[in-house]
Amino acid sequence: MIPATIFSRILALTIAAFLASPLARADVRLPKIFGSHMVLQQGKPIIIWGWANPGETATVRLGEATHTAVANDKGEWKLSMPAMKAGGPHTLAVKANNEILFENVMVGEVWVCSGQSNMEMGMKKFHISPQEIAAANHPGIRLMLVENKWTPRPQNDIEGTWKVCTPQTIAEGGWDGFSATGYYFGREIHQKLGVAVGLIDADWGGTRIESWTPPEGFAAVPALKDESDRVQLGDPKSEAHQQRLQQTLGELDQWHQTARVALQSGQSAPPAPNLPDELRGPQELQQATALYNGMIHPLVPFAIRGAIWYQGESNMGDGMRYADRMKALIAGWRKVWNQGDFPFYFVQIAPFLYADKPPEMAPEIWEAQSTAAQTIPNTGMAVINDVGDLQDIHPQDKRTVGQRLALLALAKTYGESALTHSGPVFKSISSKGHQIRVEFDHAHGGLVTRDGKAPDWFEIIDAEEGGFVKAEARISGSSVILSSPVVKHPVAMRFAWSHVATPNLMNGKGLPAGAFRAAVSSGKDWLKSQVPEAKDYELVYDLDLRRLGPSISYEIDRHAEIGKPFDRIAYLLELQDANLRTRNLFVSMDAFTDDLSKIAIPTLTSGAIFQEKVTNLTAYSNVKGLPNGKNLSGGSIEFWPNNYTQANPANIPGASAERYDSGDQPIESTDGYGSMQVHHHGSGQTLFAINHWRDGLQADVGIGSQATGEPDWTFAKNASSYRSMRLKVLVRIRR
User: Fold this and answer.
1) Cα–Cα–Cα angle for 464, 470, 476, nearest 5°?
2) Considering the domain boundaries, does residue 599 fall inside one?
3) ∠ Cα 232 296 303 (to 5°)
4) Model confidence over 362-386: pLDDT tens digits?
5) Domains in the chain, number
C-alpha cells in the first residue's frame, strides 16, 4: 500500500503534468458567425476574432494574406485583414494550439435581416412556396439563421450555421423556413450584382423595437433620455450602475451591523436589502436591449454592407415616438458596428384591421416611419399598402416586399440611379380658393391609379367647421387637386389615414404612395403678425412638449447668457391637434421673479413655486372665447412641481374649492404631479395649462379651459392627442 502522503504527492505531480500538457490547453475557437460557406463583406477590412489561451498567438490565413494576434489575459484576440474584392471560394485557416479550417468562403455582400414576425415569416408560409422553394437553388447566396435568444447581458456568441441556399436549406428552421423577405431581397441583389450575398436572419415575432436597441442608441437620442437612464442603470459598466450598486452595498453593510446587533440582543433582524431591479438589466423579452444582447451584439464587428428591417406592429400606439425609437436603433447599430452610417432600409408596415385599436393609430406609426426615412441619413422605406391583407397581419406576398427593399439598396447603395426606388412622396401643399394642391416627388412616369379611377383615400378639412371629409381628387401632372362641396376654406389634408387604407395612387413605375398628412401654411409668423408687442421680447427657452418627461431638455436654453434685467415675462404656446388645426396663445405679465431659471417648467430642480396674482396681463389667441387684449385685470399663476388639492388658500376670485381650477393648493410631495398654469380669473378662464409633465405624452396640456372634466386640465392625460406642441418662454428687457 502506498502511504497517503506519497499518494498525495504523486496525484499532485500527475495533475500538474496534465495541466502542462497540450491536451489541457484551450483550443483556439471563433464565434459561430464564422464558418464554412459564409460570405465576408467585400471592400471593407475583414475583422476576425475569437478565443485562445492567454498569451497564445493565433495565426489567420485568408487568400494570400496572413495575420497574427496574441490573446489577452482573458483569452480574447482580434485582428483586421485587408479588404478583398468579391470572389471565391476561399479557405479561412486559423491556427494556434489547434487549427480550424473554414471552406467554401465567399467574398461579396452581407446584409442583416431583422425585425419581428413579418421579417421572420419563412419561405414555407408564402402561398406559392412550393415552386419558389424548388427554384431556390443559388450557390451564391448563403444563409445564416440566428437562433432566437434574449439575455440580460450582452453575449459573445450565437447559435447558428452558415448554409448554401438550396431548396432544402431555405425551408429549414425559423418560422417555417428562412426569412422570405430576406431571401427575396438577397436574390435580387445577387442576380443584379452577380456577386455572392450573405444574409443574416436575426428576428423574433411580436417583439418591440426597444428590445433590439443597444445602450448607445438610447444615449444618442435626447428625447429618449429617460429610457437611456434606465438602460444605463442596468449596465454594469456604466457609472450610474456602479454608483447605485455602491449605494446598495452601503445599505447592505448597514444591515449587517444592524443584524449583528439584533443577533447579540436576541431580537429579530430587519429584512435584508435586495439588489434593486433597475440594476439587473432586462428581465424579459420585450425590455430594452434584451434581444440586442442575445442576437445582435454577438454579430459585432462582423463586417456588413447594411441592414433591412421589418417591424412596427408591436409598437402600435407609440405614434411619433416611434421615429425617435427608429433613430435610436439605427444610431445604436451604427455606433457598435463602427462601420460608418451603413445603409438601413425598412418596410412601412402593411394596412390591417386592428379591431381593438382606433383607425388612426396605424397611420401615426406610418407617419413616424416616414419621418425616420426623411430625417435619418442613408435610410429608405418600402411602402407596401398595395400588397397587404386587411384580415391577416402577416401578408402573404413577401416577394414584393423583398424586391422593393432591394430597389432601395440597388439605387441608393449600389449606384443604379436609373432605377425607380420610391413611390410618390409628399413634397408641398398650397391652397387657392376652395381647393388644395398637393405636389409629389418621385412621380416617375406621372401620377396614375392602380384601377384607373380617381385617386381615393384623400380627405380635407375646413378652417373652422367640422372634421375631415372625403375629398374629390384629380391628378394634374405631379400634383393631386383636392376639393369638397362642404369645405369652403380648406386648411389641411390627409391621405390613407386609416388602418384599412389601401389607396390606389401610384407613380407610372407601379410604386404606391404612402400615408401622410399636411397643413397649409398661412405664410405668416403668427407671433409677429398677431402680437404687436412681440418685437420687444427676447427668447429664453424653447421646448418641444412632445419631449416632456421626468427631466426636461430644452432645445434652446439661454437663461444663463441673458444678463440684463427684465420687467415682463411671456409664454407662447402652439398646439396642433389631430385635425391639423393650430391653436396659438401668447400671454405676458409683469415679472413675478427676477430669476430666469424659475420662469420655465417649474420642476423640482428649478426650485420654482409660485401661486400669486399677476399684474398687467396681456393675452392674444386664435382660440374662440379666450380674452384678447392688453392690461387685462384678474391674472394669476400656479407654478409648482408639487401635488395639489382643490382648496383655495390664496382666495382667488371665482375659484372653487371643489374643482381643480385657478385656486388650487400645492401640498406634499414636492416632486409630485406638477402644475404650470396661467389663469384669467376675471373671465373665469384657464389661459393655458401644462401639468404632470413627468408623465411625457400622458401629461395634461391645453389652451383655454377644458370643456369637460377639470377646467385647468388636471387629469386630462391628453398630450399624445396633439401632433405637435411647443412652448416658448420670453422676457422683455428693461429699458
Assistant:
1) 105
2) yes
3) 120
4) 999 999 999 999 999 999 999 999 9
5) 2
